[in-house]
User: Fold this.
Amino acid sequence: MTTIPNPPPARTRTALTKQPHPRKSLSQESSHWKPEFNKASPEARFDRRERLCHTAHDLLMSRRRAILLSPFARLVCVPFLLGWVLILTATAQSPGDNLNGQGSLKDQLASLTSYPTAPNTGVIILNVFAERSGAHLDRQALLKLVDRSSQNATWATTGDAAQGVFTNIAYGNYDVEVSAVGYLSTHKELQVVPTLIQLQLDIVLHRDPSAINLDLADSILSPKGRKEARRAVTALKSGNLTEAQKQLDAAYKSAPTSPDLNFLLGYLYFQKKDFAQAGTYLGTATNLSPHNAQALTLLGRTGLERKDYPSARSALEQAVLADSENWLPHNLLADTYLHEKNYTKARDEAQIAITKGKNAAGPAQLVLGEALVNLGQNQEGIQALNIFLQQSPQHPVAGQVRTLIAEIQDQASTTIPADDSLPAKARLSGVDPLLALPAPQLSAKSWQPPSIDDLRLSLAPGVTCPSEKIATESGKRVQELVEDVTRFSAIEDLFHQSLDEYGNPVRTETRKYNYVASISEPQPGFLAVDEYRADKLTLDDYPGKIASTGFAALALVFHPDMRDNFAMLCEGLGDWHGQATWLVHFRQLADHPNRMHSYKVGNRIHPVALKGRAWITADKFQIVRIEAEMVSPMPEIQLLSEHQVVEYGPIPFAKKKTSLWLPKSAEIYFDFRKHRYYRRHSFDHYMLYAVDTDEKRKEPVAKPSSDQNNPDKKKSS
Assistant:
């Protein structure tokens, strides 16, 4: 909860009551699940020597020869039969294989590891490689094993060395699907049989040609270069072109192949109206980063300014492919077609721009109107021009547009009154559609993260979400948080910044607290989140006199007693720091109780509806990251925006040799009362009070106030 004066007590409680609403699943898709382990059966282990003997026995049995080995024979079976296996393997290899390469017998023997498995089951080991270079995949892959007879699915993920293992797999025919972000999914059929207990396969994934590498700039720019680039962006936003050029020139000397620096220099020269230089740098930026829609769009606009229409068309056609949902490149491309007298394409692109941009795409109405008039559709063209005037009656070109409409009408009434099909081409040169566009805006990093619904997700293609499994298992993980964390403490570092309109820090403050939080369930369906800090804090003790509490509760969105209040949808398989994760979008249901987040202003509590996205690990179904923001602004309390980012991870407790999944940091970006703020809560030195009593640090001096049990006190996530 974010609290504004009057001062609240230092400790608050949230009452979360289960409601009997019908549950909404993540999606209609679901998969059947089977246990990965047969707990009722004893396990059988196979060490390396036994595995080799079994391998040799399997090969002999496949030729219908059974061999009974005496104890003495077992001592020599390994070297003798190993040599025989090497001969057979070398004979079976394709011309491109060798005994020392990837997938060779030497490689397989070196990586052979024993895995426990129940009787009458087998082990499947999958090694995942990138392309055909022989390099292990540099990120986590998701493995889906489907029993072809029952269609039951079992899931796993790769670990170190890009290897994934399925154990306790019943004999039968299976289909395995391997997926990873940035790569095309691969399917392979396989068979688990009694004669081969441990099956090892190499899977090669091929890059998805539509995937975009977003890490190029970070790998090129040095820390000093990034600092200079940030200063340049600040100067550009402030209109200080001299300072911007100074910083960009310094950064460019050390990283001339940085697409970001080339784009910024192109933008700088565009602002200076040196369109030749702008085109040079922007051309370099797009060559280095061919899918950079922002650079392609500005390059196309630069071509229009220079009246180099073929170059403009080439850049803008690429821009609409790179960012088909953005109305601006469609509008500029329509303008280009208009100048090239390709009026049909100009009309079509202008209509697309209007569809994509709606009211924001008002300038496209001008292009559409001119294209329609040139196609002989005068009345339709005049209608489009009038829509432009209705949307922008005070626009600087509004007078020119009114004059154009009058001339078209005059031509139709005086020249050929009965024929509306004669185009008024000679009348169109007086209005340049570029003049209707606002000045190009620098789309550098905003002061807050992109909106939840604007964020472009990189998803593995062709992967179906096991939605019910994700809902069930993630709910269990959150229940474990409630059940296991009876009470924990940590050192909290609070970092607070007041920002200007460009996102630059104006004032920075820091605080450090002894922090205590607990999540309890005093009765079924009723969750209570308690949180307080050392000393009896008032609002004056918080930066900006704004208290922010309760971020550990954000994971409770996925608690079985809470998730019914949200519409949830699994968006697909994504990636978080190289780990395969399911991405789940959630949104507060308007007709369900809002118990997750609120602002307290004075004595009044204002619930804030949230929407967001969670990153949930594909193997353990742990929540590693949640982003959430307001569904809509709240002008009644002057809260225009708020964006939360909470990250979770395993916290080790050494004395008990265990670890728990707890919040590690929480960030808030909010625009409140005409001020912008950034706040970060980070935690370390965790301790479990109920478990590590011998490690227990002195509790905060302040005791919970008497009103902590007041159900009207609400806490935010």
Summary: The domain at 471-692 is CATH 2.50.20 (outer membrane lipoprotein receptor (LolB), chain A). Confidence is low (pLDDT under 50) at residues 6-111, 209-218, 417-428, 691-717.
